[in-house]
UniProtKB/TrEMBL annotation:
This is Uncharacterized protein. It comes from Rhizophora mucronata.
Length: 45
């Protein structure tokens, strides 16, 4: 496999993961653990 194929596959996997996380509210707890500050909290402030 070429580096481009691996990179594109990685991007698709990450994009799909964020797509699922946006639909599942329970994942919010997982994000809060990884990112204590949270991107959404910074936007509100």
């Amino acid at each position: 496999m070429q580096m481009g194929d691996i990179f594109s596959l990685l991007v698709r996997t990450v994009h799909f993961a964020f797509f699922l996380s946006s639909r599942i509210n329970k994942v919010e707890n997982f994000h809060s653990i990884m990112y204590p500050n949270g991107p959404r909290n910074s936007r509100r402030r």
